[in-house]
Amino acid sequence: MKDVLGTALKAYYFDKNTKDKLFTNSSISEQDELPLNYLFRSFKEMPVLEQKALALAKGKILDVGCGAGNHALYLQDQKKNVKGIDISKGAIEVAKDRGLKHTEINNIYDFKSEEKYDTILVLMNGTGICGKLDKLADFLTHLSSFLNPSGQILIDSSDVIYMFEDEKGEHWIDASQNYYGEVEFSMKYKQLETEKFDWLYVDYNTLQRCAIYHQLNCELIIEGNHYDYLARITKAKS
Question: Which of 143, 145, 201, 218 has the fewest Cβ atoms nearer than 10 Å?
C-alpha cells in the first residue's frame, strides 16, 4: 500500500507551511478532511479517551499504530518505557525525528518479540486495524500473546449505529449484510491515494463477547461523547 499517511505527515512536519490536505473516503460517509495538525496534537488537545488511556499506561508499553508518535512521546516524557510501531515508514521517520527513542516499522501481524509488555496501546479506533469482525478474535489473541500475565490492552472504538438512524431515532440495518461496523476506507494526499482497505468499528458489547469467548477479560473504562469508548482487555486467570 502506498504510504499516503507517511507522506502527508512528513510534508506537514518538515514543511510547516504546507497547505495540502489529507482526505479520507469511506463506504458510510462522504469525503472528509483529516486535519494534519490533529495528527500532531499535544496531550491537552487529545480526546478524553486518549488521555485516560495514557494515564492508565504502565510498565513496558507498546504503542501499536503510533503514527507521528503523539501518545508514545507523551509517555516517554513521563519517563515511561515505550516503543512505537507503525506500518508507515514515513510516520516512523517523523516519530524518530521528534525524539521517540524506540520505534519499529512493522505490521502488528508480522511483529515478533521475545519481550512481553505490561500495556499495549491501540488507539484512534484501534479495532480498525483488524478490518473485519471475523478477524477480531485473532487480532485480540495475537495482541494478548505479547502481554505479561498481568498486562493490559487499552483499545478504543466507536459504535457507528448512529450512521443508520432515521428521523424518528430508529435504526435500519440490513440483516442480510455484513456487520454494520465493517467499513471500506481510502486516503488521499495530493496525487497519492491508497487502495480501499477494510476498517472495523465495533460496539462495546460485541467486543466484550468476542473477548470473553476467547478467554480474555474485557472492561469498559470510559465512554466518550459520541458512541466512542475505551476498553481494557486482560488475560483471564486460570
Answer: 145
Contact 49, 229 (CB under 8 A): yes
**H or E, element range at 153:** strand 147-158
| Residue 4 belongs to a domain | no
Question: What distance, in Å, lies between the first and last C-alpha atoms of the chain?
Answer: 41
Answer whether residue 67 is part of any domain: yes
Q: Number of structural domains, the chain? A: 1
Structural domain span for residue 61: 43-178+201-235
Strand order across the 228-235 sheet:
103-105, 81-86, 60-64, 117-122, 147-158, 228-235, 216-223
- Kindly state the helix (H) or strand (E) to which residue 9 belongs, with its residue range: helix 4-14
pLDDT for the residue numbered 238:
65
CA distance 71 to 63: 8
What predicted TM-score, i.e. pTM, was given to this entire model? 0.94
- What digits encode the pLDDT tens for the residues 214-230? 999 999 999 998 899 99
Task: Return the CATH number at 153.
Answer: 3.40.50.150
